[in-house]
Design goal:
alpha/beta, Spore Coat Polysaccharide Biosynthesis Protein SpsA, Chain A, 7-stranded mixed β-sheet, two-stranded antiparallel sheet, 12 helices, globular
């Protein structure tokens, strides 16, 4: 019993310290002037596979960008779709000189990385932005990235919230995305980046070439964002974050648990290839949360053993309530309470799926 108390209360103390670190990281940011029209020239790369239903809203969003058309190009790569992705994209961009649609051929790498690499090889501009075919960038997206790149960054990742829906899968997906974003942005701001969302990701083309592109990231089909970031870290690149509201990139969540678990397991599998230092820190963080959650079940043995559980709940509520608006979300108190436990449970489910499930570029 005494050993159990030491473990549980030590976990509560360490979890509190971790949350303080997250707090300081989230409050450490670079101030940029997004009101000015940017001068950087961008190539926006989108890999699309069977996306005929999503391409129209993507192109509508890109046409609404508040940026000079001559200062950016859009390159859409149809990656062997079996629907009308290529036809829809070509027709919707007909007559627009800065929009180009290609069909991937002779890819150097399998899956999405190969399609993105093909698109980047076609890019004419010095700055590359990556997003997905089902995404909707905010109008100020390019201006915000231009202002940030003027600070000398090699790689930058931004906020990529999910649209609010009505079903439980949507709530779980959105909460998981928020919790992950709180960690990734905080640690990156403290000089310890480890993950990014390819839906809102940018880099200098020369920096991409310096780390040999996706050449050293082919351990798994996924990881076109995280493993590329890993290579940037290994090469001591300057990595920054962008969380200005007008730089957000929105997208939809999966509609059912099967698709959600498949998607999250694929992403979790990528974490198995993080740098060892990142794996240790992130694993330790999740273990602390799980241990404090389990303290609830020792309440009958000793009423005081519920204290680590209460500490965790209060910390979860505080950090989510304080920062959620800055990441495009608004959860109610009752939602935070139950979604946190669902989130912890799915961490275990997704980790199991990452080990036993084969990934695929769908």
């Amino acid at each position: 019993m005494e050993l159990l108390q030491i473990i549980l209360f030590s976990a509560a103390i360490l979890l509190t310290l971790f949350n303080l670190i997250i707090y300081f990281g989230l409050n450490r940011k670079i101030t940029i002037n997004t009101g000015e029209i940017g001068t950087s020239k961008f190539s926006i790369i989108i890999a699309a596979k069977n996306e005929e239903k999503n391409i129209p809203q993507l192109i509508t969003s890109l046409k609404a960008l508040e940026y000079q058309p001559e200062s950016f190009e859009v390159i859409i790569i149809d990656d062997n779709s079996i629907d009308n992705t290529f036809k829809v994209s070509s027709e919707l961009t007909l007559g627009l000189s800065n929009y180009h649609t290609f069909q991937a051929s002779g890819k150097m790498y399998p899956g999405k990385k190969g399609a993105l690499n093909f698109g980047i090889s076609k890019a004419k501009n010095p700055f590359i932005l990556i997003t997905d075919a089902d995404c909707k960038p905010m109008p100020g997206w390019l201006n915000a990235f231009s202002a940030m790149f003027s600070k000398g960054y090699d790689f930058i990742f931004g906020v990529a919230p999910f649209d609010e829906g009505l079903n439980i899968v949507n709530k779980i997906s959105r909460f998981e995305n928020l919790r992950s974003s709180l960690l990734t942005f905080s640690y990156a701001n403290l000089g310890f980046p480890y993950s990014a969302a390819a839906r809102n990701f940018g880099f200098k083309k020369t920096s991409f070439e310096k780390i040999k592109g996706y050449k050293n990231t082919i351990e798994t089909l996924s990881g076109d964002d995280d493993l590329l970031l890993r290579e940037a870290i290994k090469n001591r690149m300057k990595i920054g974050t962008l969380n200005e509201i007008n730089s957000f990139v929105y997208s939809s969540t999966m509609n059912n648990f099967k698709s959600y678990i498949k998607q999250r397991s694929r992403h979790t599998k990528t974490s198995l290839y993080y740098l060892p230092s990142r794996q240790i820190i992130i694993s330790f963080w999740h273990i602390l949360n799980i241990v404090c959650t389990l303290s609830f079940f020792f309440f009958m043995l000793n009423p005081f053993l519920i204290i680590p559980f209460l500490v965790k709940i209060l910390l979860d509520i505080a950090i989510v309530m304080f920062y959620q608006n800055k990441f495009g979300y608004k959860f109610k108190l009752i939602e935070i309470l139950y979604l946190q436990f669902v989130y912890e449970a799915f961490l275990i489910i997704n980790f199991t799926g990452a080990i036993f499930r084969n990934d695929a570029w769908n």
